């Protein structure tokens, strides 16, 4: 009914056991690594967007401040008469 197979060497059995044990661990580790990479990418994108928004706000404030200064200077009578 069943044919007896030739006995395998101990080293080939050990290699088979290690391979069977490691493959699921490697699959699980790659799944976890992908998730960590995705979370880190999302965090980095949010951080960069926040930084860009803050820089844009600071730039707008500087431009508005410069416009106010230039507007005040444009009202100066001594500048109009070239009396510096």
User: Percent of residues in helical segments?
Assistant: over 70%
Distance between the termini: 114 Å
Largest sheet: none
Structural class: mainly alpha
Number of helices: 2
Number of strands: 0
Annotation keywords:
0% strand, mainly alpha, rod-shaped, 84 residues
Give a written overview of the molecule.
The longest helix has 65 residues, at 10-74. It is rod-shaped, with a radius of gyration of 36 Å. 82% of the residues lie in helices and 0% in strands. The chain is an all-alpha fold and 84 residues long. It contains 2 helices and no strands. 0% of the residues are buried. The mean pLDDT is 90.
Brief summary:
This protein is an all-alpha fold. The protein has helices spanning 10-74, 77-80.
Q: What's the topology here?
A:
Elements: H1 10-74, H2 77-80
């Amino acid at each position: 009914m069943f044919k007896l197979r030739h006995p395998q060497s101990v080293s080939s059995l050990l290699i088979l056991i290690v391979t069977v044990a490691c493959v699921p661990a490697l699959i699980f580790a790659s799944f976890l690594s992908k998730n960590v990479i995705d979370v880190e990418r999302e965090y980095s994108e949010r951080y960069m967007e926040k930084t860009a928004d803050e820089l844009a706000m600071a730039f707008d404030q500087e431009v508005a401040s410069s416009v106010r200064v230039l507007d005040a200077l444009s009202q100066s009578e001594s500048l109009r008469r070239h009396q510096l």
